[in-house]
Amino acid sequence: YLRKLFQQHLGVAPKQYALYQQVLLAKQLLHQSRLPVHQIAALSGFHSIRRFNDAFKQQLLLNPSQIRRKKMTGHSSVIELQLSYRPPLNWHAQLDFWRQRTLDGMEWVTGDAYGRTFSWPTAEGLVHGWFELSPVKEGVMQLKLHWPSQQELTSVLQRIRQLADLDANMPQIEQQLAPVFGDALESGLRLPGLWSPFEAAVRAILGQQVSVQGARTQLNRLLAELAEPLPDDPEKKLFPTPGAITQNELLMLKVPQARRDTLKQLSATVIAEPQSTPDDWLKLKGIGPWTVAYSKMRGLADPDIWLGGDLGVQKALKRHGDITPEQLAPWRSYATFQLWFSLSRPALKETTE
User: Fold this and answer.
1) In the prediction, which pLDDT does 76 show?
2) Following DSSP, what letter does each residue of 79-146 receive, concatenated?
3) Looking at the structure, do residues 293 and 238 belong to the same domain, yes or no?
4) 198 is in which domain, residue-wise?
5) Can you give the CATH number for the domain in which 134 is found?
6) Mean pLDDT of the chain
7) In sequence order, what DSSP letters do the residues of 67-81 get, joined into one string?
8) In terms of domains, do 141 and 178 share one?
9) pLDDT class for 348, splitting at 50, 70, 90?
């Protein structure tokens, strides 16, 4: 069925499409980086230089050496690439949302750049790195990626794009939301994501019935005790693993014991059932529909999550008259963020001017 869809809409088989995407990534790395060709081949998912050269000739009718613009240097663990997106993008609003929730040593907002650490599974085990995103010009973001591995980059680049919501079709989304929000629509407002549904769920659990700053304080306590340092940059921290949480009493958290228990149950479930989804976590005591929805919206970039029970959403709805969730499908996540941001609109306008 998948093969049929690819043929119908793209005119190629899935394997051919995947190979073409590998070649396009390699072409970008050849243009924009100083990495040696053998390293680019590996990062693009090719296991041999011969296969790399053959695929290049087949897809682009060129040799990699014909595309290379910059002089090659030795191996570098920091890769710089430009990521495209379709405008509009309200980057300052997105930065402001992240800034209020950054965790010490794990995330940072510096000037117009957002950065964070991450862990990513590969065939050779977990790779621990960091990235930083900043705008270059309309339609282009600059990515600085610390990737201390020779494993392919395609999947981690896609995850970064998803976290920053760079693939959203904003004109289409806003065309549907505009009749509902009118002049109050904040153009270019995307979904500020998190690295994983597990991280989103932990944040949501510690954010239950407290302010944003209160949740941030508890999360920083969790990181201070359980976060592992980035192996080659000890000043940076990685988000605590499920294993670290299950093995700790979590007494550093100034929360009811039931909330600590929920965190430990969630972590144990993720260890026992690595493929479990936020919907599966609803069976756990202390995790309700709001936590599941929040985890899907920020951890999986689900575009159609409606947090109708959220106090902020309910407060904002009073300003917008009769809005029904049905009017907003399939972009209810974007509508949720429109409502959240409307509560602090004067502050947001100040940061964007």
Assistant:
1) 61
2) EEEEEE-PSP--HHHHHHHHHTT--TTTEEEETTEEEEEEEEEETTEEEEEEEEEEEEETTEEEEEEE
3) yes
4) 194-300
5) 3.30.310.20
6) 89
7) H--S---S--SEEEE
8) no
9) very low
